[in-house]
Write a structure and sequence with these properties.
The chain is α+β, with helices and mostly antiparallel strands. Helix content is 39%, strand content 15%. The strands form 2 sheets. It has a 6-stranded antiparallel sheet. It has a two-stranded antiparallel sheet with strand order 1-2. A hairpin with a 3-residue loop joins strand 1 and strand 2 (60-63). The longest helix is centred in the first third of the chain and has 24 residues, at 65-88. It binds zinc ion (ZN).
């Protein structure tokens, strides 16, 4: 059974592998978990002995299939708990990460599967990140684009944030942006990549900084369904 600290290492490697192709360095892992390079290095040997990582000196570290399965399970717990905290306990999306960091270490597959079912098998956590299913794979998520790269003059909807750090989420609160916000890119400024956007139901244009545009996932918003009542049969 992996300990909390081992779980945090495996999760850190999973996150780092997402960002870059192939192996990750022990230094990067140490930084991510807040340990010294020496203790991260020692941990990699131990994880290697258990068959959870492949660790080659000078070439870095990668998760084995077994290690990957454990890391995805932790991610699954983390994101389901975040969903639960927001949907059922009334937390804001910038308040749940730290709590989920604790809850993710409660190691009961039965609990997590029941939580998943209770929530209705959600695909996304409150930050728009995909939740792995019980098989350790992500449930399919619609194609999405970074706002920084989105075309102009399309109706877009905010579907996720790239870095769900609390400070960024609070900043989005100041800007009045949340998941589901609808907007259109009106103008892209080549000088610094800032965007003039128009939010649905707001007349004025709003200028968004490049750092914000690079961290918001958007999708083309579907037009609202048109409900047609049959003739001679008015709604009661
Ligand atoms: Zn989180």
């Amino acid at each position: 059974m992996p300990t909390v600290s081992v779980e945090n290492y495996l999760k850190a490697i999973l996150h780092l592998e997402e960002g870059e192709e192939g192996r990750v360095s022990t230094t990067a892992i140490a930084e991510k978990v807040g340990a010294t390079p020496a203790s991260a290095s020692a941990m990699m040997s131990r994880l290697g002995d258990r068959g959870w990582v492949e660790h080659e000196r000078y070439y870095g570290v990668s998760l084995t299939e077994k290690g990957q399965r454990i890391a995805m399970e932790i991610l699954r717990r983390h994101r389901l708990w975040e969903r639960f905290l927001v949907d059922h306990l009334g937390f804001e999306w910038d308040q749940v990460h730290e709590i989920a960091e604790e809850l993710e270490h409660v190691d009961s597959r039965e609990l997590v599967n029941r939580l998943d079912a209770f929530l209705g098998f959600p695909k996304l956590d409150p930050h728009g990140d995909a939740i792995p299913g019980p098989n350790g794979r992500f449930r399919s998520v619609a194609a999405r684009t970074l706002l920084a790269e989105a075309p102009r003059n399309l109706d877009l909807v905010v579907v996720g944030v790239v870095d769900g750090g609390d400070a960024f989420l609070r900043h989005l609160g100041v800007l009045g942006i949340e998941l589901g916000s609808r907007l259109t890119v009106m103008e892209r400024h080549s000088f610094d990549g800032s965007l003039h956007v128009r939010f649905a139901d707001v007349d004025e244009l709003q200028l968004l900084a490049p750092s914000v545009c690079a961290r918001l996932w958007v999708d083309q918003s579907n037009p609202a369904p048109v409900i047609v009542f049959p003739e001679n049969d008015p709604p009661s």
